[in-house]
Structure formats: structure tokens, C-alpha cells
Design brief:
The protein has 7 helices and 6 strands. With 263 residues, the chain is of the alpha/beta class.
Length: 263
């Protein structure tokens, strides 16, 4: 399928300005140039044209928002200065499997100030002595060359980064789920207390008659004891009164005797 037809198919009844990603891999270029792609794709952020027999970037439209450009397995040998002019905000560029041989060809990428990752796998330039050191010195803005930085640390995969972000979100959710909400423990304790009260109530219900009889019997016994106490207290009071009366009588008798002696 030709590139122009493939682009129309990929639009899927959308306007070009609504498209942010466009994959045109394995379709055919006419005369090795881009056809059907124009400036109306102004929101495009990711463009892939792998294995499309592309030899020239001369007809690449202005794509100011483009971040990632896949151009692997084509027949590009030069003309890379167009990229800085048409796609100034590129951060990732894949030129693997092209006809790039010299450092001077890559030098044109110096004007891509935001470029962080460059792939040149299977290009002849990789056979140069001190290839990696030379590229890092030439393009000081890049962090990763062919998937590794200057200390041979592997570049993070964009999908893995998304997964890591997702995992962090999952961990946060798990933490939220693991941690009980405020007042949860108090509610749980209250529920347990209610259950204990219900259980106690049911036990009382089972032996209700027996408990009732024993309770009544206890009340009667208590009343009898109270009555005895009351009687005993009354008798003591009467005895005290009688004693006091006897004392007064003795006192009077003594006084009377004294008066008679005086006489």
C-alpha cells in the first residue's frame, strides 16, 4: 500500500489536526519521499515510518509538537539538517538500519537541542573506531546512544516507565485499602460490644423463668431480714426509754428522801 493511501486509512474519519500518533510502517514511498503527510498534522507527537524505502526527508512537513520519530530500516544517507528545521522538539530519533556512514552526517543533529536518545544500530557509522565516544562528544545534548548512556546504563523503556507509574498508583491504592478509615476501629469495638450484649440478652432469655423466680425469692428473703432489723431496732428503743424512765424515777426518789432528812 502506498503511503498516501495508508495515511488516509490511519485517519479513520478523523481530521489530521486531531491525530497525535501515526504509524506508517511497511508501506511504500513514491520515489523515496514522503507523500500525503502535510502541515495539517500539527498535533502529531509520535510518527513511525519504519521500512518504507524512505531515502529523503526533504518533504517532511513542519511538526513542531513531534517528540518521537521512528525511521529505522530505510535508505537514508544524509539530509538530516531538515529534522532540526521541521521537528525542533524531537527527544527520540531512531535511524537504525539506514545508510549513515560518517560523523559529518550526524553532525547535523547538533541543532536538535532537546534530543535525548539516538539509535544508529546497523548503520555503517557504528563500525568507526571510538564510535560511541565520538558521538557523545559530537552530540553533547544526548543521554542515550543505541539504548545506553556513557556509563553503559540502559535507557528506561517508555512502556516500563508507564508501568512503574501504574505500580506506584496501585501501591498507593493498596496502602489506602490497607489502612482502616478514621473511626473504623471504634465502630468495630462498638459492634463487638453490641454483639456481646445481644449474646448476654439471649442467655438471659433462655433462663428467664429460673432467674425471675430466684430473683423474687431473694427479694422476699431480703424483705424479711429488713423487717427483723426493724423490729430489733424498735425493741432496743423501747428498752432505752424504759431505762431512762427508771433512772428518772430513781432520781426523784433520792431527792424526796433528801428533803425528808432535811426536815
Amino acid at each position: 500500500m502506498e503511503m498516501k493511501k495508508r495515511i488516509n486509512l490511519e485517519l479513520r474519519n478523523r481530521a489530521p489536526e486531531e491525530v497525535t500518533e501515526l504509524v506508517l510502517d511497511n508501506c511504500l514511498c513514491v520515489n523515496g519521499e514522503i507523500e500525503g503527510l502535510n502541515d495539517t498534522f500539527k498535533e502529531l507527537e509520535f510518527l513511525s515510518m519504519a521500512n518504507v524505502e524512505l531515502s529523503s526527508l526533504a518533504r517532511l512537513p513542519s511538526l513542531n509538537k513531534l517528540r518521537k520519530l521512528e525511521l529505522s530500516d530505510n535508505i537514508i544517507s544524509g539530509g538530516l539538517e531538515v529534522l532540526a528545521e521541521k521537528c525542533p522538539n524531537l527527544t527520540y530519533l531512531n535511524l537504525s538500519g539506514n545508510k549513515i556512514k560518517d560523523l559529518s552526517t550526524v553532525e547535523a543533529l547538533q541543532n536538535l537541542k532537546n534530543l535525548k536518545s539516538l539509535d544508529l544500530f546497523n548503520c555503517e557509522i557504528t563500525n568507526l573506531e571510538d564510535y560511541r565516544e565520538s558521538i557523545f562528544e559530537l552530540l553533547q545534548q544526548i543521554t542515550y546512544l543505541d539504548g545506553f548512556d556513557q556509563e553503559d546504563n540502559e535507557a528506561p523503556d517508555s512502556e516500563e516507565e508507564d508501568d512503574e507509574d501504574g505500580d506506584e498508583d496501585d501501591e498507593d491504592e493498596e496502602e489506602d485499602e490497607a489502612g482502616p478509615p478514621e473511626g473504623y476501629e471504634e465502630e468495630e469495638e462498638e459492634e463487638e460490644e453490641d454483639e456481646d450484649e445481644d449474646e448476654a440478652g439471649s442467655e438471659l432469655g433462655e433462663g428467664e423463668e429460673e432467674v425471675g423466680l430466684s430473683y423474687l425469692m431473694k427479694e422476699e428473703i431480703q424483705d424479711e431480714e429488713d423487717d427483723d432489723d426493724y423490729v430489733e431496732e424498735g425493741e432496743e428503743e423501747e428498752e432505752e426509754e424504759e431505762e431512762s424512765l427508771r433512772g428518772e424515777k430513781r432520781k426523784r426518789d433520792a431527792e424526796d428522801d433528801g428533803e425528808e432528812e432535811d426536815d
